[in-house]
Hints:
By secondary structure, this protein is an alpha+beta fold. It has 2 domains: 1-44; 48-190, no CATH class. Helices cover 35% and strands 27% of the residues. It contains 4 helices and 7 strands; from the N terminus they run H-H-E-E-E-E-H-E-E-H-E. It has helices spanning 2-43, 47-57, 137-143, 168-175; strands at 75-82, 90-96, 103-109, 115-127, 147-151, 156-160, 183-190. The chain is elongated. It starts with a helix and ends in a 6-residue tail after the last strand.
Amino acid sequence: xxxRESERIMKNSDRIIVYAVGFLLGILLVSVILxxxxxxxxxxxDPWVVHNAEAVAAGAEPLPAGMPASIHKGxxxxxxxxxxxxAPQERVWLLNFDESYPYVRVVESVASGEFSYMTxxxxxxxxxxxxxxxxxxxxxxxxxxxxxxxxxxEKIAVIGVLSTKxxxxxxxxxxxxxxxxxxxxxxxxxxxFQGQ
Length: 196
């Protein structure tokens, strides 16, 4: 009976050793997999950097260093000068983001070097007292624009822009002026960053 019990103890100790060796091998395997994955991620090229480099190579100017870090995460989808390249007053970048707001327009004043940030695909209209948002329908229909959002309490309407070009925001603000009796003013939908 003693032999069987010692064999049994041996078997239990063998199990513990096998379990410990398997556990250590598992930890080693997982650490190798994670370190290889980390090396691959470090070696991979950021697609934002590649796209922006391609846009710069195609003639777009790179984003200046003085912008918020979050702006540098956007892909440059268009760039140009306004009113034109021969007499530039503004440098304009259109950026696309997968997160947060998808289309951003960045404008740098050539004279002062100051930046402004706004949505690239909509403007804000501040309605006059007594004007309901539904009264904008003829204007929207004539211009082929779409209402994106409105707030009757705040008397604000947000509408899409005329095109996807770098001058779409100012062109849309100018295009709605014949209906200015309906609103106090139309403006770019400005973006503000924490700390500004």
